[in-house]
Amino acid sequence: MKENNQNRGFTLVELLITVAILAIIVAPFLATFVMASGNNLNASQKQDAANLAEDIAEEIKGKSLDMIEKTPDWNWISGPNHPSNPLNIYEFDIPSTALPTGIRSGFSAKAKLEPASNPINDKMPTLTNMSGTDTVLFMSGFYANDSSFPSASRRESTITISCDPITSKYKVSLEVEYFDSSNISLEVKQVSEVTRDEAPSIFAVYTPMSLTDKLYFNNDLSDDEMENAAGDFVPLEFYLSIQKGATIPTMNPGNIMIQEGFGVSADTIANYITANLSNVDRYINIYTNADVSVAGYEKSLVKEVQSDKLYDLTVEVYYGTGSSKKKCAEFKSSKLHFG
């Protein structure tokens, strides 16, 4: 009788051939899987490092330089009292043991603070502790609508402070009017209006459109409205910083007009300062970097109320040790130091 071979199994040779074919087919997929797994791990490390760099930067920004110097386990490379610090640059290493728990394993960091090239470092008036009262800042509002008026050749900006007789709230507003080259008004833009419980200090950082720009500061307060809770007369403080652009070097100081009190006509900033140098009861104390040509008083006009300094902050995070150590994240920011 003929033997039935339909149900016989694989021979050893057939099995080996099958395994070999599978190995050839699967090998590239295994390599891809291993590579993808490695890439995922690398991406995870980079994300951890980026988070770590940002956390360290926020910690540095939230501390005074004094506190940073005394942070345990941070190894100073240079600092104000460090012999290798001729440029007043703060630089220090942060070992793994000083990093936040959870993702610090294998990581270390380095941080650097160096004085920034910024007007704050050039002794312009600063916003903090200017007068002990609230401060209203005008900056981008002056040029925020420039793109809407491409044919404009100059601006006239007006800052006005007044007091509502019903609510006794102080109102500070900014209006910007645009003019074309034929001196025709294009439009008046109500840029900003804020209210305060007390008369605030006013800080204006102005970037001119042209040398013929005009800037008005109008004080519409009466004598009574300029008294504090104790009944003492308190002059307003007006801080004006004129920014010099690449094409517009400065602004004509004759176009900066000050109205010193309710019902009083405006005067140029130079005339106002000259008339009030010895007047202790003046309505407005002016502090500015504008060239007002008042002999002997140019530098004294800028009130250096606080020796603030702005630093560029860089945090780098590394993974590994020795020759295998590599930078895997960097975070840049800035820190304002209050002196």
What does this structure look like?
With 339 residues, the chain is of the alpha/beta class. Helix content is 18%, strand content 32%. The protein contains 3 helices and 15 strands. The chain has helices spanning 12-61, 65-69, 269-275, and strands at 75-78, 90-94, 107-115, 135-138, 154-163, 170-179, 185-196, 201-206, 214-219, 236-242, 256-259, 267-268, 284-288, 309-319, 326-337. Strands 7-6-5-9-11-12 form a 6-stranded mixed beta sheet. Strands 1-2-3-14-15 form a 5-stranded antiparallel beta sheet, with helices on one face. It is elongated and about 110 Å long. The N and C termini lie far apart (109 Å). Residues 36-41, 123-132 and 298-302 have low confidence and may be disordered.
The main pleated sheet reads as: 6 strands, mixed
Strand proportion, as a percent range, falls in 25-35%
Number of strands: 15
Q: Would you tell me the overall average pLDDT?
A: 77
Number of helices: 3
Keywords, separated by commas or semicolons:
339 residues; alpha/beta; 6-stranded mixed β-sheet; 3 helices; 18% helix; 32% strand
List the helices and strands and how they pair.
Elements: H1 12-61, H2 65-69, E1 75-78, E2 90-94, E3 107-115, E4 135-138, E5 154-163, E6 170-179, E7 185-196, E8 201-206, E9 214-219, E10 236-242, E11 256-259, E12 267-268, H3 269-275, E13 284-288, E14 309-319, E15 326-337
Parallel strand pairs: 4-8, 5-9, 8-10, 9-11, 10-13
Antiparallel strand pairs: 1-2, 2-3, 3-14, 5-6, 6-7, 11-12, 14-15
